[in-house]
Amino acid sequence: QVQLVESGGGLVQPGGSLRLSCAASGFTFTGYAMAWYRQVPGKECELVAEISTGRGSTKYADSVKGRFTISRDNAKNTLYLHMTSLQPEDTAMYYCHKDNTRGQGTQVTVSS
Predict the structure, then answer these.
(1) CB 5: neighbour CB atoms within 10 A?
(2) pLDDT tens, 16-47?
(3) Residue 54 has pLDDT above 90, yes or no
(4) In terms of C-beta density within 10 A (0-12 exposed, 13-18 middle, 19 or more buried), how is residue 43 classed?
């Protein structure tokens, strides 16, 4: 059974940083591309970043390029999202995705 458990969200001031983690289990982590999405109530889910298998090629939404970094630790079956220079518009529920499966999410709130 696929399980994705996100953590690391919280309240941060504008300009601050957070690192999200996603602990994965129930599948061969190294065999799958992974992604982070975010969603604000009333809006569509937005792809934030994705990372491939193997060499771990990455892609980012234009809105987070240069500020967010997605990475994976295949030995720990864990996906990360390091977020810097956070802005109020980054406030959302952040979800770890494997194909069409996602975790319960972790809330990120950027506010002074």
Answers:
(1) 14
(2) 999 999 999 999 999 999 999 999 999 999 99
(3) no
(4) exposed
What distance in Å separates the CA atoms of residue 56 and residue 111, rounded to the nearest whole number?
32
Contacts of 108 (CB under 8 A, 6+ apart): 9, 10, 12, 18, 20, 38, 83, 86, 90, 91, 92, 93, 94
| Distance, CA of 77 to chain centre | 14
Question: ∠ CA(96), CA(78), CA(63), 5° rounding?
Answer: 45
Q: In the numeric block, which tokens belong to residue 24? A: 């994965």
- pLDDT exceeds 90 at position 88: yes
Query: What Rg, from alpha-carbon coordinates, does the chain have?
Result: 13
